[in-house]
Amino acid sequence: MGSRMKEFQSKKSSLFVPFITAGDPSPVVTVDLALALQNEGADALELGIPYSDPLADGPVIQRASKRALENDMSLEKAMKLVANMRAAGLTIPVIIFTYYNLLLQLGEQKFFELASQNEIDGLLVPDMPFEESKDLQKSCSAHDLSFISLAAPTTSQGRLKEIGEAAQGFLYCISSLGVTGARTSFANGLDRFLDEARSASSVPVLIGFGLSSREQMQQFEGKCDGFIMGSTIVSKIEELGPDLLREDKKGEALQTFSDFLSKLVPLNVYS
Amino acid sequence: MKTVYPDSRGRYGEFGGKFVPETIMFALDDLEKGFNEAIENAEFMEELQHELADYSGRPTPLTYAGKLSAKIGGASIYLKREDLNHTGAHKINNAIGQALLARRMGKKKIIAETGAGQHGVAAATAASRYGLECKVYMGEEDIRRQALNVFRMKLLGAEVIPVSSGTKTLKDATNEAIRQWVASVEDTFYMIGSAVGPHPYPKIVKEFQSVIGYEAKAQFAQIKEGGLPEKVVACVGGGSNAIGIFSAFVDEDVSLVGVEAGGKGLLTGLHAATMANGTAGVIHGSLTYLLQSQEGQIQEPYSISAGLDYPGVGPEHAFLKSTERVKYENITDEEALEALNLLCREEGILCALESAHAVAQALKEARSMRAEENIIVCLSGRGDKDVHTLFEQQKEEVSHGQ
Q1: B334 is an active site residue
Q2: Across A52-56, B109-113, B180-184, which has the greatest mean pLDDT?
Q3: How many angstroms separate the CA of residue A259 from the nearest CA in chain B?
Q4: Which residues form the Tryptophan synthase beta chain-like PALP domain (chain B) (predicted)?
């Protein structure tokens, strides 16, 4: 694990990890959005790689993937984009969120080369369950990358223990069954699931899938170490997209985006 | 040597496995356990056999295509008549098996995906017979192309849910069915329609389709006093009828040929020849061959036959190709149409466009074989559903003065 991820782990209890799709609405604007997220208090960035068949995603992120693919985005290009983010001042950890097929086609060796060259800190593969990911998890450790594991409310206690013990960086707990996307209610027995996840794991336990407001985060006060938020943010980017792409309107659109974030980021959620 | 796969991780050599969101891992484990228990249970297997016989109409005949064989010259051609199953295709074998399994596992709701509509109709039929609620996901483009099957599903009481994402075809319907399964996994059974998807689906579908192979083998042995055919030919989209018929012959000295859709020709890029032009990758939860870009984006297949129009293939087929146990060939739209017409005129059998690909390849193979040699072709379904496509095709030919 690299130093950025270590710093992330030691920060505070209400960690905030937003998700955006690389290349949406354009590669250049993705860099601007990453910086805006950092400025508004993001503790790490989950950078989604667009995929033609995103099985774990709902319509909002599917549409973002489609837009990004139209901009010719790929795993390799997205990783190189992180170097631009670093050059522009991004200091928080960046976690690459990619479906397994894209990683498989790029090749592991090339992936780790690019990860090192472009200062990438973590990897999350939503369609690669624990059993299939053991070798990749080891390779990540060997290359100072955190392999982010997921646990779901449907994960058995035995598996949760195994996943929790092996977790690197943070443990991503899925709040509800189904795909990504804002929702109003969460899975039954979520509190017990989070308790079990925290006792099974020595890394921060973050909750994601479906969170769309600061009020929802407050529901989980004291039950997890932070939050991951995707569709709500991506939806805002979709709305602002046309303006973000216009030089004369970009500044104003970025300000609107920052104002929107300032109402979401759980800076003082536990105070 | 007997073949023993998949292994405990659901792998067929390097292929197969489970590449799915964590949320449905428990459901796959449950399914594996439920399936293994069911096939060891005499009562379950007896009910399955009973339903296949009394409801679906098994055994289906093995018909000698004497006139067709004589016309072509060379080997004798036998047709395994899955077209004579209830609902008109082999899909019902699997749908009955999985519906009985769902009921045994206490699930009241099933979801399914469909391309050409045959699996959708089979799923809706089985759901109706066994008292299950049924939702079928279907791409908007396929809904348009297969209006009659959509109507049949609705008559059977199923809800047909249009899928508007991606290219609005089978690939996207499958994505959507998996997404919906993730959301409702606690009380819903996903009835997958081909030998694809995460483990244990390819194994389950093969088990329920293996009846095609065992029947064909026994029927042929009866006709030829214990003999085996020299060759078995079947079409491959996802590959469930092919894996079903191959299963009885894979450990025998019989040549096996899988036939993919060559569409308008491999050089045109308009085809569904996953084995010929695909590379290893992950689609719908399984590591297999698929049509994809260099970066790993899944590419759209094309075929005149909606049932072969799939960018991936079952992982066991990928394995059988890699070990060279099965030879995979491809047949163009034009060759398939020609074979369909010939079979119709010589034998009075209108087969599905999918099956016409297998017939076309069998005709090619037969020509270079000796008169005393035999080929079994899996006639996976009947052509009623394709009459509209054929009509449009003929109209086009007429307008071109042919």
Answers
A1: no
A2: B109-113
A3: 32
A4: 57-381
Instruction: Please judge whether A127 and B17 are an interchain contact, meaning their C-beta atoms are less than 8 angstroms apart.
Output: no
Task: Specify whether A57 is catalytic.
Answer: yes
| B187 in A contact zone (CB under 8 Å) | no
**pLDDT in the model for residue A269:** 44
Instruction: Pick the closest to residue B263 from B248, B253, B274, B252 (CA basis).
Output: B274
**pLDDT tens digits, A206-222:** 999 888 888 888 888 78
As a whole number of angstroms, the distance between CA B310 and CA B290 comes to: 9
In the structure encoding, which two tokens stand for residue A12, read together? Answer: 């505070």
Residues of A in contact with B175 (CB under 8 A): 53-55
Which residues, at least 6 apart from A25, have a Cβ–Cβ distance to it below 8 Å?
A67, A71, A237, A241, A242, A244, A245
Nearest CA to CA, how far is B334 from chain A (Å)?
30
Cβ atoms of B6 and B16 closer than 8 Å: yes
**Placement of tokens 């979520």 in the chain:** A190
H helices within B278-371, ranges in order? 315-322, 333-347, 353-367
Q: What was the pLDDT predicted at A183?
A: 66
Cβ burial of B97 (10 Å; 0-12, 13-18, 19+) is: buried
Q: Is B380 a catalytic residue?
A: yes
- Judge contact between A94 and A120, C-beta under 8 A: yes
- Determine whether the interchain pair A126/B18 forms a contact, defined as Cβ–Cβ distance below 8 Å: no
Rg (CA), chain A: 17
Let me know: does B212 contact B245? Beta carbons within 8 Å.
Answer: yes
DSSP B169-190: SHHHHHHHHHHHHHHHTTTEEE
| Kind plus residue range of the DSSP H or E element containing B256 | strand B255-263
Q: Does A151 touch chain B (CB under 8 A)?
A: yes
Strand B62-64 versus strand A171-174 pairing type = unpaired
Q: At what angle do helices B25-40 and B91-104 cross, to 10 degrees?
A: 100
pTM score, whole prediction? 0.95
State the residue for tokens 């109409």.
B57
Helix (H) or strand (E) holding B68: helix B66-72
> Per residue in B345-373, is it b (16+ CB within 10 Å) or e — as a string?
ebbebbbbbbbbbbbbbbbbbbeebeeeb
**In degrees rounded to 5, what are phi and psi of residue A17?**
-120, 100
A156 CB within 8 Å of a chain B CB = yes
- State both tokens at B243: 């894996």
Tokens in use for B63?
A: 């018909």
Give me the sign of the Cα torsion angle B48, B54, B59, B63. Answer: negative
The CA–CA distances, whole Å, from B264 to B67, B227, B323, B335 equal 29, 38, 28, 10
